[in-house]
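pipeline/complex-builder :: batch 7 item 3
reading input block
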Amino acid sequence: MANRWQPACDIPHLRLRARMLADIRRFFADRDVLEVETPLLCRATGTDPQLDFFSTTFHSIPKNPTLFLQTSPEFAMKRLLAAGSGSIYQICKAFRNGESGRSHNPEFTILEWYRVGFSLKQLMDEVSELLQGLLAPAFEDLNVRQVSYQHIFQEITGLEPLVFDEQAYRRYVQIAGFPEAVDLCGDEHGLWLDFIFSHCVQPAMAAGTLYLVHDYPAIQSSLARIHPGDARVAERFEVFVNGMELGNGFFELSDAVEQETRFDREIAHRQAHALASVEKDHLLLEALRAGLPDCSGIALGLDRLLMIAGNCRSIDEVLAFPLSNA
Amino acid sequence: MAIYSTNEFKGGLKIMLDNDPCSIIENEFVKPGKGQAFNRVKIRNLKTGRVIERTFKSGDTVEGADVVDRDMQYLYNDGEFWHFMVPDTFEQYQADKNAVGEALKWLKEQDMCILTLWNDSPLSVTPPNFVELAITETDPGLKGDTSGGGGKPATLETGAVVRVPLFVQIGEVIKVDTRTGEYVSRVKE
């Protein structure tokens, strides 16, 4: 590497980022979506067992509370929505401990927005419109494909993702060249889906196409509402370009009781697996009890979007100072 | 032996996999935003030289492999084993045909090599990048040809056969790059 004081990315990539930020702000200003800021340093954080957080101690006698660097601005933004903000967006940093690699930096930039009154389909269409504009420097005409999780999973692997068929999954990974998946995934349906989707489905996606994969299996509902017409799937979609995951969209769960149940389940999972313990976010639950308007929301990884726009192989190529020389 | 977690994986780390010592070539972090994180790792089996890919669940641990590289001097071959010595300590190691492998054709007594030891026994032998060996057999050269275009095969004192320029003669010592098996130059005595 060159001198460590120097930025990892080149100057044209700084310009590309600045232009993308300006384009995003114009896109939302044209649609009357309000830009907001919420704290990066919070008293509570997500319970998702798959997300590891950074925490610190606030020197404030006598309690010296633990504070968390947020893994996403979701909870705070939902409190604004419940307070009647209307549609909002935010461009901010998010932090995820232990995540580092070719497409991960523990500190990264998120674009997150919520559309009050939007169905998931309307939000998917808006995502397509935004990304076709932002990725225009890389793709003159970005193809868009909206496809259900079940459909693309079957198309590429021949397997049914919504019903757990361990024998069929085992046979498939042997043939596909991933025999280690058998021991690794055991009898956990969700783990099998994560493995096969990331190792077999994503790499098989056509290059130069924006995929909006919707109707995720209900066991991977995260913070999405379960589909009212089909309990096997959740109202969640994911965005991919060139096989790389860019973001997650949800028709937001507004039921405080259901939300608390999911928090409790994740906290129990954390305890069972000896992960760091967290408190559930009571302020979010209060906001949901007060009433979250029907809305759809999505978070996109801006650095990855820049990787695609700038045709970069590694996230370091679009960051001024990745963790290695931060 | 040390235990390594997937977040310590990096190029060059030696680990045990399927009871064989392996070296990590490349480690890719694969993490769905809302799902399980994996490490997709490219690994060389140090016994067979084969490169494979394997996925681990992030946070899982594996046993380290006690593999070290040591500079040693090649002493002699007794018909079955090749004997090496650590110059500073005079410790001696014997390597079998499997461990010596391709290095066989470049080994000249007293040359310095790198021995890769696994649990203190030789796993592989890496010859020096450049060796100087005498030619024992080659067709007579053409006087006046100094370009070396085309060339001819020459057998060296260790048995290796390399292509040399036409002007090089039996009995001359040449310098060879062992990584490519190519002639570099004549060595003036």
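note: Residues 11-142+208-325 of chain A form a domain with the BirA Bifunctional Protein; domain 2 fold (CATH 3.30.930.10).
queue -> next item
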